Amino acid sequence: MSRQSDRPALIHPARPLIILASLGLAVVVLVWRAVDLQVLDKAFLQSQGDARHLRVVRIAAHRGMITDRHGQPLAISTPVDSVWANPQVLVAAGEQWRLLGPELARLLELDVDYLWQRIMSRSGREFVYLKRHVHPERAQRIMALGIPGISLQREYRRYYPAGEVAAHVVGFTNVDDQGQEGIELAYDDWLRGLPGSKRVLKDRLGHIVEDVESISDPQPGKDLRLSLDLRLQYLAYRELKTAVRLHRARAASALILDARSGEVLAMVNQPAYNPNRREGLRSERYRNRAVTDVFEPGSTVKPFTVAAALEAGRFRPDTRIDTAPGYFRVGRNTIRDVVNYGRIDVTTVIQKSSNVGASKIALALPAERLWGIFSGVGFGSLTGSGFPGEVSGLLTDYWRWHDIERATLAFGYGLSVTALQLAQAYAVLAADGHLRPVSFLALQEPPPGRQVMAAATARQVVAMMESVVTRQGTGHLARVRGYRVAGKTGTVQKSGRDGYSDERYVSLFAGVAPASDPGLVMVVVIDEPRGGEYYGGRVAAPVFANVMTGALRLLGIAPDDVPAARHRVAVAEVM
Ligand code: 59J
Description:
Distance between the termini: 153 Å
Strand content: 15-25%
CATH superfamily of the largest domain: DD-peptidase/beta-lactamase superfamily
Number of strands: 19
Mean pLDDT: 92
Largest sheet: 5 strands, mixed
Number of domains: 2
CATH architecture of the largest domain: 3-Layer(aba) Sandwich
Radius of gyration: 37 Å
CATH class of the largest domain: Alpha Beta
Oligomer: single chain
Bound molecules: ligand 59J
């Protein structure tokens, strides 16, 4: 064994060197790692750490206000809070959540089971809305419960102070504050503004404990002033609704244009809806029929047929036309009047609404002439209003017209128009032959018009239309005490699968006032009156009279029928 002990110890001669080298290497690695962590990876690691607590959150922008032309609010945004939860945190908070859940559900006006379901089915997520648009005061009571994982988000809720009255024009936004219909949709970019964002520090439970920095401030949306006059809007709404009830009509539209500027002062439809309560809302109620729905305008186009005749130089207001025996044949078709008017002048064709007279006038003109005036006053084209969903109606090209088409177009069949187009066309007669785009926004000054017929023609046609609103005319119920009114009735059989119907009618009145210098244009459309009466002169004309009477007075437009005004004073004194 001694031999063993004789052996030299198993220590390599280089051992101290190896140890030293290993230690040195270890130091180098450690230093490298330290530099790596603290210098090279610093930004990455720090951001990773902060991400646990620092978040960027969106700040909603305030949506611009919509007002009528006098600043009356039609759509305003009020601050509300949306309550949301972090299900992960909430589930982890087990006990506390079980205890306070029922109280939370009560404050949110939600069923406890539903609330529980909503959170558990998303237990892996970090965000779920519990309730949008809660009143800020209630939201504070919810936060006071101190449930971990429940947070608020500031949002804005749209409120429509005029409710049903201006609903079809103003439209509405969805819960995310985006325009869906009407002006809210058309001018969404203008109204919307730009959301901002900020960096916030959140605690372990997801509550914001500190606003760290603002990244960008929200840019509030801009206000919008509409052309509507809320007073006229109320008036039109009330009268149209009454008429629809009285005549048990399917639907209806009415609108008033400023004859000089093309601004829409009032536009209403039935059925209507309350934009503040839109559950289960269907297009039948919310679409703006005055711009989205078309109808055959019937006799309300006769003034334009006559305008074409005057422009062609072939007719004057007193030119006589033989309408006897009350009907006449064009090829295989027969055009009829309700009675035989015999030999009548052009004015009487308008006053009595003779289909035979209008057809004979049109057949005496080149097709191009009739088309020129019809398309000139805007039939077949959009009005330029920019309203969402507006349709242009239909006016076919004149080189496709046979005689029968020219004859029936003359009294309003074979083309289709919207109520707004019809009003724009009447505005041409009111504005000495100038066609102007329609505007839903308040204008500083009238846009330049395009002359589409001679001023003298327009004036002559307005004068002829005054005869409609007399004892002998079809529209005497449209008269307004103290003012001269010019207009035209229309009673249109609706066309269906089996041709024109004897049961379904559209009752129309279109007119201007005061006739001596027209300031206002109004169109009334009553769709399918079912109360027994259906003549435009009986159903639509009274709505025109009632609204126009109020509108002329509200706007302080001077009476131009002074003898009638004197007569009224005299009668009042006798009574
Ligand atoms: C009328 C039509 C349908 C289409 C006729 C109205 C035609 C015609 C084929 C019968 C009711 C009715 C192209 S009438 O608007 O003439 O407003 O106070 O619907 O004639 O040929 O039972 N209006 N209306 N005609 N069609 N086709 C008159 C007239 C009009 C009135 C009354 C009585 C029609 C004075 C309509 C009104 O001016």
